[in-house]
Description:
Layout: H1 3-15, E1 22-25, E2 42-45, E3 51-55, E4 60-65, E5 75-80, E6 84-91, E7 97-103, E8 108-113, E9 119-124, H2 126-129, E10 142-150, E11 156-168, E12 171-181, E13 187-193, E14 196-202, E15 208-215, E16 224-228, E17 234-238, E18 248-254, E19 257-262, E20 267-271, E21 277-282, E22 287-289, E23 292-304, E24 307-317, E25 332-337, E26 342-347, E27 356-358, E28 361-366, E29 379-384, E30 388-394, E31 398-405, E32 408-414, E33 416-417, E34 424-425, E35 429-434
Antiparallel strand pairs: 1-35, 2-3, 3-4, 4-5, 6-7, 7-8, 8-9, 10-11, 11-12, 12-13, 14-15, 15-16, 16-17, 18-19, 19-20, 20-21, 22-23, 23-24, 24-25, 25-26, 27-28, 28-29, 29-30, 31-32, 32-35, 33-34
Organism: Natronorubrum tibetense GA33
Domain Pyrrolo-quinoline quinone repeat: 76-262
Protein name: Pyrrolo-quinoline quinone
Amino acid sequence: MTMAETADAERDDERAQSLEFRSVPLGEIETARSRHMWTRSAVHVASGGDLVVTGEWDGTVTAREIGSDSESLESRWTANHPDHAVGITTLESNGGAVIVAGRGETGTIAAYDAATGEQRWRYDTADDLGEAVKDTVFYLPYVVALETGTDVDGTERLYAAARRYERDGETRQWHSTVYAFEPDGTVRWTYETDASPITIELDDAGERLAVGYNRCMGDHDTGLVVLETETGDLEWNWDPGTEGDRRVGDVSFDGDSIAVSSHGDKRGYLLGPGGAERWRVDLAVETNLDDETLYAYPNHAHASDGRVTFVTGNTYAVESRETERRHPNEHRITTFDGDGELRWDDDVRGFVHGLTADGETVAAPCAQNFRVRDPETHAVRWFDLESGPIGIERLEGIATAADVADDTLAAIEEPVEYHDKGQTRGEYVLHVASLE
Length: 436
């Protein structure tokens, strides 16, 4: 670690809140390597903060009680999902259901009874997307996002986005579908394109669903669409207007505004109704360092109560994906006010697989920085939207998933072995703590 990185770590420790994690092993998983791996685990804290549900790469789904016992996380039930269990949410109506998103041969979305784990219904997105043409992870049908909310008619509904990739020589193609489900699993409507969705977000009123498309290489050539939840009809769309197929990394509603992280030009945007640009900020735009032009993707966005937060990822070079240098704004979290003025920023230091928030609290599970390979980056960090950094909990392994709800923080740690270090760090573990 360099002197500057050591100083960063010391500052982290000085400001960190102390958490008492309760932990439980999750079994075995292939050890991660220097480069960050795809999403392999999921965790969700149910509303009320008394139940945490984990999804594992082997398809195991486990619901655990979060009680006052300082040691145990008692298992309520375990179910076997037909695919890799890579996404989880819950429906509160009809006694409660745990919804699991899959990546695998069938790309299954399934609902499990929150009390017993019994499967209530199942939908295989491969029926719409088609089957994988190659037996590798990247080609498998993949439910990339789940969202729940109450529509204007008072019905709680589930929304999902799924995709499948295929390549034939120089021809690359995506197949994707966005779904609206009734609580019983009936499909209300679908929205199909030949682009790659990466995120969905429902507005607070339950009237509009925003869909962010990461890769557009076919007829669908826009990074953001906003759909009416009643019908699935297109209300409006927006695009950064950049060359190439990279478009949007994440979207987030705040009232009638939508925050967008742009993979096209590596900027952050706040849009108004109809896609009118309210402001934009440079996040990790192309920057010349010596003889290289470097950039980093803004991967995550969260907007709430007049605050907009973005998180950037790994450094890449325009001429080559390999570089020894680092973009000055890589692995950074920044928060702006409603006028686009910077409120605060901070280093997250490692790759963040996903951003989670509840009220004024934002949490980031930080994995490896594959260009530096420094285990000090392994941590869960949490922030206050108004004031910035609150705390950090360091882990031996890499933090790859997290969720926060009702002052409960849950995170999943996975083992990692850097290719030039020869040491396995950490284990496959669920950690749960109270933020009160």
